[in-house]
UniProtKB/TrEMBL annotation:
Keywords associated with the record: DNA-binding
Gene Ontology terms, MF aspect: DNA binding; DNA-binding transcription factor activity
GO CC terms of this entry: cytosol
Highest taxon of source: Bacteria
The species this protein was found in: Stieleria neptunia
Name this protein carries in UniProt: HTH-type transcriptional repressor NsrR
One Pfam family here: Rrf2
Length: 143
């Protein structure tokens, strides 16, 4: 499975927010990772609709995690952000190949996908976040 840039940005945004005790803003995330503010804003919108991020408008507003990092599964975030996680199209379909009725590769790939998803479901955001100190060093090098 190769993740989309959108999923990459979503995971980075959640990791960033998990290191914060106060609200952040989209520009903070974009600046740290050197990515477009517009892209981060789109990702934050999707994350907010999925219940991972809380967005508050106005003075004193910003973005923050809507749940504790221990309650957010990396696998769930990937499943939310990705439309297709199949290794090959045949795994998600019965009619994509002329040999589908007897192909053993499809079963092997389906099992690999299942194992990968099971593993990612068991990993929480809390397990992959950098320390605040690590991010501070990155931020200091940007300024």
């Amino acid at each position: 499975m190769k993740l989309t840039t959108q999923t990459d940005y979503a995971l980075r945004t959640l990791m960033f927010l998990a290191t914060r005790t106060e609200r952040a803003n989209v520009a903070d995330v974009a600046t740290l990772f050197g990515i477009s503010t517009n892209h981060v804003a789109k990702v934050v919108n999707l994350l907010a609709r999925a219940g991972y991020v809380q967005s508050t408008r106005g003075i004193g507003g910003g973005i923050e995690l809507a749940r504790a990092p221990e309650e957010i599964s990396v696998g769930d975030v990937i499943a939310t952000m990705e439309s297709d996680t199949h290794l090959l199209s045949c795994v998600g379909s019965d009619d994509s190949c002329v040999i589908h009725s007897f192909c053993k590769l499809k079963g092997v790939l389906a099992e690999a996908e299942r194992l990968q998803q099971e593993y990612l479901q068991g990993i929480t955001l809390a397990e992959v976040i950098p320390t605040r100190r690590q991010l501070n060093r990155v931020e200091a090098s940007i300024e």
